[in-house]
Amino acid sequence: MKTEPTTYNLLNSIFDPEDLRKLSVEQLPEVCKELRQDIIKEVSCNPGHFAASLGTVELTVALHYVFNTPYDRIVWDVGHQAYGHKILTGRRETFSTNRKLKGIRPFPSPDESDYDTFTCGHASNSISAALGMAVAAAEKGEEDRHVVAVIGDGSMSGGLAFEGLNNASTTSNNLLIILNDNDMAIDRSVGGMKQYLFNLTTSNRYNQLRFRISKMLFKIGILNEDRRKALIRFGNSLKSMAAQQQNIFEGMNIRYFGPIDGHDVKNIARILRDIKDMKGPKILHLHTIKGKGFKPAEIAPGIWHAPGKFDPETGERFTADTHNLPPLYQDVFGETLVELAKQNPRIVGVTPAMPTGCSMNMLMQAMPDRAFDVGIAEGHAATFSGGMAKEGMQPFCNIYSSFMQRAYDNVIHDIAILKLPVVLCLDRAGLVGEDGPTHHGVFDLAYFRPVPNLTISSPMNEHELRRLMYTAQLPDKGPFVIRYPRGRGVLTDWQCPLEEIPVGKGRKLKDGKDLAIITLGPIGNVATKTIEQAEKEKNISIAHYDLRFLKPLDEEMLHEIGRSFSRIITIEDGIQKGGMGTAILEFMSDNGYTPHVERIGVPDKFIEHGTVQQLHHLCGMDEEGIMAAINK
C-alpha cells in the first residue's frame, strides 16, 4: 500500500543531504517536524519499526547538515533508528516499499545506498566498524574524512561496544561516537556546573586555542603522547570533581561532551560543527525520547517499537481478531515456562533484552525474582546461564536464533564442555520475514550440529514444544537446544499434558512405500498438506517422518528408511549446507545406504526480506516447491 503524497514546505525539496545543507539553521526545526510527520504517516499504514526512529529525527537532520555525507561516514547501530536517515538520503519516494519483497531494506545496507556505510541489523557493532573506517581513512591520508558512530537504544550494553571503546582509547583516531541515550542505556546527568563545563569545552574558540597550545608543546618537546593522555586524564578528573560525577568514557581517556537535549536540532548542529575537527576519539552524549512527537509512543515506547498498523491521528492500533487462531509459539513458550517453574524451583529464565518478544515477560510478572533481562548481551546471557547451571539452577535461556550466533563461543566454552543443564530456546528460528537477512534464523542447525554434548531439537507443533520443554528440564539432560519459528502454531487446543519425549527419538507420521519425506520442525506441517495433495493427484504412496531431534539422530528410524527407500526428500527451515539434510546424507553414506537424497531448505545465499510465505516460495519450501520435488 502506497500512501498519498503529502505537500511539505521543506521536505518535498530535499532529495539528498546536499539539498538539506542549502537551508539555514533556522529552518532545521521545520525540517524535523515534517520528517517526523512523514515517518508517522508512512509507518502507520506500512508497518515497521517506529518509536526509535522518531527519537533520532533531530540527530539525523543535524548529522547530514553538518557532515559531508556520504564522503563522511555515519555508522548506525541498531538500524531501526535510521528511518529518517533513509528518507533524507534519496529514498523518500520508495519508502512505502520498506520491508516489502523487492522493496527497500528494513535496515541500512551498503548494497542499497552509499549513505549506508555498514550492515547494522544487530546491535553494538557501530563503534568497532567506525573505528576501523577512521583508522583506514588515516592510513590512506584522507585527513578531511570524518567518521561518526551512532550508538544507543540499549545497544551500549553489548560487549562488542566496550571492546570497541577500549580499542578506540588506545588507537590513534579522530572518531566521533554519538550516544543516543533514550533512558535505555545511561542515567540522566544534570546541573549548572556541568552545563558550564560543557559550554566551555565544546566552544570552538576554546578548542582552537587548546589545539594550538598542544601543537606548540609537541613541537618544542615538552609534550609527548603519554603526557597528552595524562593531561586528558587530569582534565577529566577536574571535570568529574566539579560536576560531582564521573563516567566510563572519561576514565578511558575519551573526551566526553554532554549530556545535551537530543531534540534541540540547532544546538546539536552547533556542537557537531565545534567538535567534528577535534583530534582524538570523542563522545557526544544526547538525551532523547523514544517515540518523540507521537504521544502514545512516548508513553509506551516498548509497545510502539514495532506497533503494526495504526491511526496516525488517534493512535489507535489496528489488531486482528485472533481468539479462534492458534497461539504464537513464543506465547506457548512463555505460558509453559511459568507452568514448569511452578513445579520446578530450580528453573530460572534469562533473555538478552527481548522479554516481550520471546514472552519471558510472563515469568517476569509471575516470578520476578526468577527471570533476568541482561540487556543486549547475548554472550553474557549464555555464560551467565552456564554459571547458574553450574551451581544447581536450571536456566531457560531464550535468544533469537540469529542473535545466538553472537554467543556461539560462549555456548561451546561455557556450557557444552561441562555439559551444563542450560535449555537454549531459539525463538525466531528459520526465515523470519520482513526483517531480512540480518535476522533470519537459518544457521543454528548447521552451527550447533558439530558441537559435542548438545541435544538439538525442533517441535513440529505446540504440543511438541511443551513436551520438549518439559523433557529438557528433567535430570541429566545436559545442554538442550529447542528451536521454533516466529508466528503462530497450528493447534488451537495447544494445552496438553506435560510428558517426557525420549531424547533422540523421532516419529513416523505416515506409512508409504514409494518415497520417504523427512522433516524437522514446523515445516513438517506444510509437508503433511503437500503429501495429502500429492497422493490424491499422483497415485503415489509417501511415508512421512518427523525427525524431532537433529542431535542425537534417531538411528533406528534412519536405518528403517535407508533399508526401505531408494528416494528421500529432506525438508528443513534452515540452511541446506551442514543442516539436517546433510546429517541424513552423512548417515546414509556412513551406513552403506545409497538412496537418492534431495534436500529442501535455504540455499547457499543470504535471503532478502519479504513475508515468510514469499520467502518460503523463493526457497522452494512451500507446498508448490515440495510438490515440484515430489514430481521429479
UniProtKB/TrEMBL annotation:
Catalytic activity, EC: 2.2.1.7
GO biological process assignments: isopentenyl diphosphate biosynthetic process, methylerythritol 4-phosphate pathway; terpenoid biosynthetic process; thiamine biosynthetic process
Gene Ontology MF terms: 1-deoxy-D-xylulose-5-phosphate synthase activity; magnesium ion binding; thiamine pyrophosphate binding
Coiled-coil features, chain-numbered ranges: none
Hydrolase keyword on record: no
Enzyme class: transferase
Reactions that this protein is recorded to catalyse: D-glyceraldehyde 3-phosphate + pyruvate + H(+) = 1-deoxy-D-xylulose 5-phosphate + CO2
Record InterPro entries: Dxylulose-5-P_synthase, THDP-binding, Transketo_C/PFOR_II, Transketolase-like_Pyr-bd, Transketolase_BS, Transketolase_C
Co-factor: note: Binds 1 Mg(2+) ion per subunit. Binds 1 thiamine pyrophosphate per subunit.
Binding site for Mg(2+): 153, 182
Reported cofactor(s): Mg(2+); thiamine diphosphate
Residues annotated as domain Transketolase-like pyrimidine-binding: 327-492
Binding sites annotated in the UniProt record for thiamine diphosphate: 80, 121-123, 154-155, 182, 294, 378
Pathway where it operates: Metabolic intermediate biosynthesis; 1-deoxy-D-xylulose 5-phosphate biosynthesis; 1-deoxy-D-xylulose 5-phosphate from D-glyceraldehyde 3-phosphate and pyruvate: step 1/1
Keywords: Isoprene biosynthesis, Magnesium, Metal-binding, Thiamine biosynthesis, Thiamine pyrophosphate, Transferase
Gene Ontology, cellular component aspect: cytosol
Subunit record text: Homodimer.
Biological role: Catalyzes the acyloin condensation reaction between C atoms 2 and 3 of pyruvate and glyceraldehyde 3-phosphate to yield 1-deoxy-D-xylulose-5-phosphate (DXP).
NCBIfam families assigned: dxs, PRK05444.2-2
Family, similarity comment: Belongs to the transketolase family. DXPS subfamily.
Descriptive protein name: 1-deoxy-D-xylulose-5-phosphate synthase
Species of provenance: Bacteroides oleiciplenus YIT 12058
